[in-house]
Each structure stands twice: as structure tokens, then as C-alpha cells.
Amino acid sequence: GAVVSQHPSWVICKSGTSVKIECRSLDFQATTMFWYRQFPKQSLMLMATSNEGSKATYEQGVEKDKFLINHASLTLSTLTVTSAHPEDSSFYICSARDFTDTQYFGPGTRLTVL
Amino acid sequence: GESVGLHLPTLSVQEGDNSIINCAYSNSASDYFIWYKQESGKGPQFIIDIRSNMDKRQGQRVTVLLNKTVKHLSLQIAATQPGDSAVYFCAEGGSNDYKLSFGAGTTVTVRA
């Protein structure tokens, strides 16, 4: 099956700093990637849709200036959490849509903001 | 927006028995449905999907049933194994934007 990677798998940062998370489709090209957020024992919540070569589309309630998304190529999307605060601590997961429209998910990135 | 829900938050199954996980969805415009498995600390793993023009689809040890009349989706796992212990999510989406809406999840525990 299709493989999606994320880097880093976990990160701890100080409040006020920015953190970049990478999402890569390893064996397929993805015109669309998605970013989700998951709190402990809860479901996944879609944050934004990332399309290669265009601006990301954010879901209602998600601050686009805080969660910067860049879809630089057909295999790479990045999520930057700017001026992170403890309430931004969460599990961030990306997915990539392949040519069959199936979404494959990355392993997730655990962000802890101190 | 509308969301997908699951009937039961937990399911305990004896190893070797069949498991049935249910899901109710509310968006009648959804035409694509997927089941994912998520183990602790990992990302969701694709299990099986079904489109609205079908009512049943089978994979390896899994079967997904779709009842559009009552907006119900189920996942059947045959001969449940300890490795099947995880949280199972159903998700719905549309072929217009492919955005997925996830249900609350059902935690499946397999008893030895």
C-alpha cells in the first residue's frame, strides 16, 4: 500500500517558538494532502486541505496565521505551528490522497509545548 | 457541520469470534465511506472503503456493509485476532472535495 511519512515523530518545544512538521508521500504523488489534529481519546478533526501549488483551505475555527501550511511539491506538505502555546499540544496527523482518491495517513507527530 | 457517529464506544470480543462495529452517518450527500484502524500512538491505517453505489464490499477477513436507506455503515471482522485490538473509526466523505469527517471511534479489545 501507499506510504506516508511524517517528521518529526515527536517534538517538545518552549512556549512562543515555532515548529515545522513535514508530511511526505513516499511512493506516490499526492495533489491533495490533509492535516488533522487529534486530542487524547478523541477522534480526528480536519484542520485544513493542502493543494499543491495553491493556498491551503482551512476549516472553520482553525487560525490560518497560526497553522501555516505549504504544499511545495506533489510529495511534500509542511505544517508550521507558529508561536506555539501549551494548548497547541496535540497529535498532528497528515494524510495524502492518491490517484484512486484513497487517503493514506502518516504516523502522526506528537507535539508538546512547555 | 454534520458528523459521523458510532453506536458503541467499546467492544470486547473473544479471540476467534466475529466482530461487528457499527456506524451511523448523517450527511446524505456523502458518497464515500472508509474504515480505519488506529493503534495507540500511531496514525490511522486504511482497512477498507466503499462507495455509495455499492452495499457490500469484502476484503481480507473484513466486510463493510452500507445501508443508505438508514444511513448505516458496519465493519465485520472475521475470526478476530489479538492484533485486531485497536480503535476503529468510520469516516465519510464526498467525491467533490474528498474531505473526511470522522466518527467518535470504537475501541475493540480482543480477549484471549
Return the average pLDDT of chain A rounded to an integer. 94
Structural class of chain B: mainly beta
Number of strands of chain A: 11
**Major sheet of chain A, described briefly?**
7 strands, mixed
Termini separation of chain A: 37 Å
Determine Rg of chain A (CA atoms, Å).
13 Å
H/I helix tally of chain A: 0
Shape of chain A: globular
Number of helices of chain B: 0
Q: Write down the oligomeric state.
A: heterodimer
Q: Quote the distance from N terminus to C terminus of chain B.
A: 40 Å
Low-confidence stretches of chain B: none
Helix content of chain B: under 10%
The fraction of residues assigned to DSSP E strands of chain A is over 45%
Poorly predicted regions of chain A: none
- Tell me the series of helices and strands of chain B, N- to C-terminal: EEEEEEEEEEE
* Apparent shape of chain B: globular
What's the gist of this structure?
By secondary structure, chain A is mainly beta. Chain A contains no helices and 11 strands.
Note the topology.
The complex is a heterodimer of chains A (114) and B (112).
Chain A (H helix, E strand, L loop, with lengths): L3 E4 L2 E4 L5 E7 L6 E7 L5 E8 L5 E2 L8 E7 L2 E6 L8 E8 L5 E3 L3 E5 L1
Parallel strand pairs in A: 2-11
Antiparallel strand pairs in A: 1-3, 3-8, 4-5, 4-9, 5-6, 7-8, 9-10, 9-11
Chain B lengths: L3 E3 L3 E5 L4 E7 L6 E7 L6 E7 L4 E3 L3 E6 L4 E6 L8 E8 L6 E3 L3 E6 L1
Parallel strand pairs in B: 2-11
Antiparallel strand pairs in B: 1-3, 3-8, 4-5, 4-9, 6-7, 7-8, 9-10, 9-11
Describe the structure in your own words.
- The complex is a heterodimer of chains A (114) and B (112).
- With 114 residues, chain A is mostly beta strands.
- Chain A is 0% helix and 54% strand.
- Chain A has no helices and eleven strands.
- In chain A, strands 2, 4, 5, 6, 9, 10 and 11 form a seven-stranded mixed β-sheet that branches.
- Chain A is globular.
- In chain A, 34% of the residues are buried.
- Chain B is mainly beta and 112 residues long.
- Helices cover 0% and strands 54% of the residues of chain B.
- Chain B is built from no helices and eleven strands.
- In chain B, the strands form two sheets. In chain B, strands 2, 4, 5, 9, 10 and 11 form a six-stranded mixed β-sheet that branches.
- Chain B is globular.
- Chain B starts with a strand and ends with a strand.
- The relative contact order of chain B is 0.34.
- The model of chain B has no long low-confidence stretch (mean pLDDT 91).
- Classes of the chains: A mainly beta (114), B mainly beta (112).
- The interface between A and B is medium-sized, with 23 and 21 residues.
